[in-house]
Every structure is written in structure tokens, then in C-alpha cells.
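Quick sanity check, NAD-dependent aldehyde dehydrogenase:
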Amino acid sequence: MPEVKAYWQNYIDGAWTDGGAGRIVVDDPATGENLAEQGLADAGDVNRAVVAARACHETGVLTAMRPVERGRMVQAMGDYLLANIDIIAEVLCREAGKPLWEARLEVEGAARYFEYYGNQAETFEGRSIPLGEGYYDFTSYEPYGVSAQVIPWNYPLEMAARSLAPALATGNACVVKTPELAPLSSAYIAKAAEHAGLPRGAVNILCGLGREAGASLVGHRDVSQIVFIGSVTTGISIASAAARNVVPCVLELGGKSAAIVWPDADLDALVSSVRWGIFFNAGQVCSAMSRLIVHDDVHDEVVERVADMARSISVGPGLDRPDFGANMGAMISAAQRDRAEAMCREAKRQGARPVVGGRKLNQPGYFLEPTIFDGVTPDMNIARDEIFGPVLSVLKFGEDEEAVRIANGTDYGLVGGVFTADVTRAMKTAARLRAGQVFVNEWFAGGVETPFGGYGKSGYGREKGREALWNYVQTKNIAISLQS
């Protein structure tokens, strides 16, 4: 088993530094044992990071570059991650409980964001507006300044890259608060920034508790824009802090996403999508396929086939099972695992039928079995509340109207899915689903290029794609009178 260094620091103003709040222990979710210690930032550390980012912005060093030069630096960050993927993936595997192959996919995904937005840097252009003879009018787009980014533990490397890459490409300086449950791999983001030659203060990476470091960051008067990925409750607090300082924020919050399955669906493709949709990353995905709404005519066959697939997945430490797609790792913590198991017990109490799983494993580490519940009705807690674990709820429908009503029957609206060979039905249903993104015949279709974000309590704003660039700039109009 690879060694992970015992102590990790924060990165502020181009230097590695301890945390003013001491240290925090990071566990290995696959064993439950202590893995390493991370320096813990306090409010003073946050202030130093924001001041450094503000100074970087105000010197104009980022905006003075030609966009292509800035874009090449962003791309170089991704190149660094790929060049060091073996080391980074092992650290990520150990701190987050992922199988090693999943960790490698995350590193590759993070690198892809830097590649994509590095390429976008020189394509982001203003426009001229005709005002008639005697006037010349045009718009330009300027970075907000300091972007504060609060990153979740389920994809600590990839989610940091998702917001950091477009922010840097548009000329912002950034302060990233990493998740205290999985902060270690984020150090390689700072190393990537150094490798790329970004100026001091452009990238600051620190770990701290939400109640101190997180609150200090999102409430700081010199922060110009905020990105948050996490729970609805915390998202409301962050939106309130942003409103007090009158700064924009992007929120990606919870999900309870549903896939609707008609009798003409390709069931082989469906089973593959269920595998990725709910059991990838042990179900700890905001856009997980947590509900499967199946037509009466194919319900029994679908349940049987997805149950067989779930039983075929091995569960255990990620470094021990390198085979692509064959295994599922641990949940991030004992508390998260126990919460998911408690929701499974409540589902049984309310009348849902456990087809597979529903229990934690009797072994070290924070493991929950791949779980499928049938006989779920829309009023049950398991059909309404986000579990954030490897638990699938199967519901029945008879008519199209009923399927859409069930799918839209939660407070969330992050993604949705449609499985049918009928293109007309797919298009009509996609238009009616209250979700920011709809997958047709393949869960997680799309990519870095496609915009992503939620309706309802799943948040607001869009990440990914060119739409994300607008999060980090404000429009300036310049109107010139040419009359003498």
C-alpha cells in the first residue's frame, strides 16, 4: 500500500503554510484508520488568502496577459495533473475511499476542465452595438476579481478544477476552501499552479472548518464572487452571506434525480446506466440516479436485471480491486454511511421492499452494500430525501402523465433521465421534466462542454460549458461620441 505523507499544509500567496487553527486528522474511509494530518486554516489565514488574491487582481497581472497566454497556463495545470496521475490518484483513493480506477478518472476529469477552459480563454469576446452615425459603442467583459470557491468532499479534485479553470481563464484570482474530509489531493492543484507559472496570489488553497474558515471566506468584504457545491442548508447560508455583500454566487446543491423507463427502452443500456448512475462513487454524487420510475409492463424484468447487476459489484478497499467498473468503494465517513443505513431502515418501516443490500458491511471501513428498494411510493422519505449513498428507489407508473408527475414530485431539479426508443416521446418528456439537464438513453451523457445546474432547491447558476464563463465576468459597455 502506498505511503501518504503524514502532514499537509495550506497554500497562500505562493507559499506553503501551517494553519492557524491547528491540524485536523484525515481518515482513510476504506479502513477507518487515520491517514494523515492537514493544517487547518482559521479566519486570519482566510484573510491573508483573500488579501493576496485581491492584490494579484489589482496589479492587473492576469488581465494584462493576452488571453492565449493565460489560457496556456490554465492548460498547463491540467498537463501537470496528468503527468502526476499515479501519485495523485493514490492519494485521492486513500483520502476519499474511491476505487483506484475511479480516482484516476477523477484526475483525468480535472485535467479535462483545465484543457477545455484553457482553450476557451481566447474565444471570449465582446461585441459592438450600432447606435447610428456619430457613435461607436462596444462591450467588454471584465473579471469580478476574487472568486471564493467552497469545494465538496465527493469530488474534491474535479470540482475544484471545474470552478477554478474558468475563473482563471477569465482573469480572476481564486481562494479555494477544500473539504476537511478529503483535502489532501487539492495540494496538487497548488503544485499545478506553480508548475504553470501563475503569479503569486492567483491560486490559494486552504482547508478549514465551514463554521470558521468557510464563513470567513464567503462573508469577506473583498470577495467578489462565490461558488458553492454542497447541501441546501449550507447553500442558503452562503447565499445569505453573498446577499449581505451584494456579490453574485453560483450554487449547486442537492438532487433526487429520476430516470423514466418505457417498455421500448434498451434494457442493456439501462442496466449500464444504473451501474454508473447510482453505484459510481458509492452513490455520493449530486446528480445520481436515485429514483428509477419504471413502466408496469417492464417493471419486474428491470428490477431483476438491475438487482443482478448490483449483486455482481464487489465492495471493498479501492487499492485492492483495480478492475475497471467491477467494484465499489467506501462512503466518505462513518456518519455518512450510518445516515444512509438509517434511511434504508426507515424505508423498510414505511413499506418499501429491499431487493438487494440496505446494510453496512461487517468489516473495517465505511462501506454500505449496493442497495435497491422496490415498492417505493412517492410519499416515502426514500423517494423524496437525498440519501447521497448507493441506494436506488424503484417506483412504478402506467401512464406518461403519472411518470412526469412522479419525477417532478420533489423539491429538487438537478438532472433527469428518459429511456425510450421513441424520439418524440423522449423530446416531449425532456421538455416537461423540471431539471437543469436531461439525459436520454444514457445517464451522465454529455461532458465538460455541456452546461450543468439545477432548478428548485438544487440551486442556481450553471457550471460547465461556455455558460460557466459568464459566472466569472461582468459586462462593461463603452459608448463613444464621435461628434466634434
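Posting the structure with no commentary besides this: The chain has two domains: 7-253+460-477, 257-447.
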